[in-house]
Amino acid sequence: MPKVEFDRERCKGCELCVPVCPKDIVLMDDVINQKGYRVATVREMDKCIGCAMCAMMCPDTVIKVFK
User: Fold this and answer.
1) CATH number where 8 lies
2) DSSP state of 43
3) Total-model pTM
4) How many contiguous H segments (helices) and E segments (strands) does the chain have?
């Protein structure tokens, strides 16, 4: 089963990863990191197909996808 991890403290909340997810499971969390940004997260990890589109779109390489 694929797994997605976000470096929550490095995420700047740009939201570029949200619209590229083909399963529509990447969203902005209500949690605020130490820099004051809402961070990206994955809901329903079991629906992730491991395509890594979110990681490819991230300008700060804060997303890692494990297959």
Assistant:
1) 3.30.70.3270
2) S
3) 0.90
4) 1, 4
